[in-house]
Amino acid sequence: MIPPPGTEFSTRPSAIKKIGAAEIQILWSDGHMSTYRASYLRRHCRCALCVDELTGRPRLVPETIPEDLTILSVELVGQYALHFQWSDGHSTGIYPFAQLRALCPCEHCANALREDRSEGPLDATARE
Ligand SMILES: [Zn+2]
Ligand SMILES: [Zn+2]
Questions:
Q1: C-beta neighbour count of 33 within 10 angstroms
Q2: What is the number of the ligand closest to the CA of 28?
Q3: Which pTM does this prediction carry?
Q4: Could you report the per-residue pLDDT of 67-118, keeping only the tens digit for each?
């Protein structure tokens, strides 16, 4: 379920559920459901250890994250983010809901993102 271009995706979760040890499912308030693998989210960690704070360059080598990484614990940070403890010992990353929604790996969102990129400016502040 994708809103027409120009409308904001909901970044408010109405339900968050761990599925087994290696997946988490978020139901957004607009009815969209996102399912993330632990290894996928871990590779998108934006903490200071994983992304260079000054340059924004990734410091994390995605291949070093095992495919079978699991979630030891997940907790809410205020009302805006999730904090995970991963089975590789990493736990410094905070995932704001807006980032999680943007990371939704489902086919619809992946396609929508590709269209956004090819069709030009959606958000003037994101451009130089
Ligand atoms: Zn990190
Ligand atoms: Zn999606």
A1: 13
A2: 2
A3: 0.81
A4: 999 999 999 999 999 999 999 999 999 999 999 999 999 999 988 766 655 5
Which one of the ligands is nearest to 30 CA? 2
User: CA 74 to CA 81: how far, in whole Å?
Assistant: 10
Ion ligand 1: residues, Cβ under 5 Å: 45, 47, 49-50, 93
CATH code of the region 13-118 = 3.30.2020.30
Query: How many angstroms does the Cα of residue 7 sit away from the middle of ligand 1?
Result: 30
Give 48: exposed, middle or buried? Use CB within 10 Å, 0-12, 13-18, 19+: exposed
Q: What would the DSSP string read from start to end of 18-73?
A: EETTTEEEEEETTS-EEEEEHHHHHHT--STTTB-TTT--B-S-GGGS-TT--EEE
Sketch the domain layout of the chain as residue ranges.
Answer: 13-118
pLDDT computed for residue 128 by the predictor = 42
d(CA 40, CA 99): 13
